[in-house]
Amino acid sequence: MATNETNKPKGGSVCAVSTCVNYSAKSKNQGRTDISFHRFPKDLFYQKQWIHKCKRADKWNPSSSFICSDHFKNDDYVRNLQAELLGYTPKGRRLKPDAIPTLNLPCHFIQGDEVSTSTTNRNKRMETKAAQQAHEEIITLALNAEIPSVLNQLPTMSIDESRDYKTLYYDLLKDHNKLKTDLSMQEKELISVKNSNESFIKINESLRSQLKLLQKNINNLNILIKSNNLENLKGSGSSTESDNESLQEIDKNKFEMEEDAIEYLAGWVAKKYKLQFPELGLTTTQCNLELTQEHDYQIPTWIHHLSYGGLIVPSQDFKNKVIRIERLFKKITKNRIPKRLGVVRHLTNKIIRHMEIEEKYKPVIQTYIKQRIFIRMRYLNQHSNLLKKKRKAKAQLQKLQKFRRLMT
After folding, report:
1. Quick one: CA dihedral 335, 336, 340, 345, positive or negative?
2. pLDDT range class, residue 219, cuts 50, 70, 90
3. 205 phi and psi, to 5 degrees?
4. Which are the contacts of 261, defined by CB distance < 8 A and separation ≥ 6?
């Protein structure tokens, strides 16, 4: 016995039975997860019996020793009903307080392998019997319970009905996906409406501020008109000649303003095509250098008032052609915007046919006409807005007058 004990490996949990060669490292290498190692009990009575069963002749410490599960019966362990019902072996099994090792001991080792195999077969039969008993107990409890079975209440379905339910399920799934996409589209539309609403609020605020400024300007103009009317009434020596002179002066100022505006727009076009057609105009710095060399007592143009170097002054030839283009533009359009496709191209071709202009200057004329249409559109929009405001103010004034009459 002593020789067998000295051959036992050291380290880990080792079975204390003299003829047993089980230890924890070996069981792990062999993949035997059913072996467990149990400490000696603290109760002296059962501890002495465990020591007697080990049949050890050498000196050893029972308080730090183990006995493996191969030496215990299944009845020695505390029952785990959950593991028995589900059919799995638990990781750790707990011995009963009065458990004593009885299997595979040195006294039975002489009988050979027949005893060990019979004991293992008996243990297996006992395990299966215990599992069957546990199953029968659960079944009897379920039958005795006063719970209506759901399975009996379910109607029996045929194959066709099950197929109908399957198609119905797929149809409902399609409807669900469709509703999901519709919901996402509606959410996107709601977000776009909110964004447009915010932009409209900003536009409304800016229009209100502009309306207030226009109202102030109208009030100032009304005050100026009243003061001018009073001055005209005081000056009794006014005659038709003075009226004619004032009208002529107004026409002259209007003509000068139009000419300055045409020159400014022609300079903008010349600046746009400065690299392609440098002969269309010069910068104001170059013009100022030429004017300093020559004495000119004329009043400077609007471009010279605005800038001393950044703007382009159109050449006299280009300016004359632009004035001619402006007259033809007014004559053809008649203070309106033609409603047709390709209006810029149509007007450009029509004006070129009436003038002797080289074909290479066609994009220059087209750019001028395009900007001229934009200016007229802006003017007509402002004019229509002013007319609407005047009509609205007139209607409100009439309502107020009517209300005053009713009150009086």
Report:
1. positive
2. confident
3. -65, -40
4. 302
Euclidean distance between CA atoms 347 and 366, whole angstroms: 8
Q: How far apart are CA 403 and CA 401, in angstroms?
A: 5
Q: Measuring CA to CA, which residue among 214, 203, 200, 223 is closest to residue 385?
A: 214
Calpha distance 259→246 (Å, rounded): 20
Domain boundary, last residue among 93, 126, 144: 144
Residue 341 domain-assigned (yes or no): yes
Could you tell me if 254 and 403 lie in one domain?
yes
Q: How many domains does the chain have?
A: 2
Give the domain-ending residue among 144, 161, 178. Answer: 144
Whether this model's pTM surpasses 0.70? no
The reply to whether 266 and 384 lie within a common domain is: yes
Query: Does residue 336 fall inside a structural domain?
Result: yes
> Looking at the domain assignment, is residue 43 inside a domain?
yes
Rounded Cα distance, 135 and 277, in Å: 104
List the domain range (segments joined by +) for residue 54: 2-144
Residue 281 forms part of a structural domain: yes
What interhelical angle do 316-333 and 343-354 show, nearest 10? 120
> What region, left, alpha or beta, does residue 342 occupy, with left being phi > 0 and alpha being psi -120 to 50 degrees?
left
Q: Positive or negative, the Cα torsion across 186, 189, 190, 191? A: positive
Three-state secondary-structure class, residue 313: strand
Lowest mean pLDDT among 192-196, 252-256, 329-333, 361-365: 252-256
The DSSP code sequence of 121-137 is HHHHHHHHHHHHHHHHH
Does residue 262 sit in the same domain as residue 382? yes
